[in-house]
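Below is how a single chain appears once it has passed through the pipeline. First comes the sequence as given, then the structure the pipeline wrote out for it. We keep one example in the README because the format questions we get most often are answered faster by looking than by reading.
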Amino acid sequence: TGIDLHQVISGYDPKADLSIVPKKGIVDISASVANKVVTISRMSVAADEYTLTGNVKADFNPADKPMVTFKLDMSKVDLRNLFPKTGEDPATAEEVQQKAAAATGAPDLNDIPVNAEGTVTVKTLVYDNITVSALSATMKAVNGKVELSPLTGNVWGGSFIVNGSISCNEGKLPAALKLNAANIKIDNIISSFTVDKRTLSGDLTLNAD
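Resulting structure:
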């Protein structure tokens, strides 16, 4: 049915920035509850050019930390209104110092009240002058450890694959990641960050741990 998304969000957070949220949306959900398991077998949300479909299941039988499994497909994610543009200073030096002084270390993922496992796909992700297509992530987050196996996508005329894990316990953030990028156009990278016509060209292949 048609829903005024601005009204819904304002009800939860009157100070929310509604400029980044479509006003009208259509939501279609089929859900059930049985034996402490909540299942959303069909979910479809559409607002302007954005769509979200998929399914989610939350198993509350492990009472200490429920298990959530999901499969989500999104048509578009636009980050341009959420983060500063490339090349822009997101904060003054004083603000950066204040945030650094207030930081107490990496967050402890064990504090997250659920474990989760699933896949997310995004047809198009946009940030400033950078567009990532066919983004897909298979992930698992259990007891403070997040595994990516893999994260894939296309950007700057080429493709990338990321595999690995990030642990976050007791303020520490050890990560083990492997990146494979192929056929990345160097001139496409440069043009995303500058309008300078003097440029390099060629393909970039990168393997990094």
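The chain has three helices and eleven strands.

See the next section for the split statistics.
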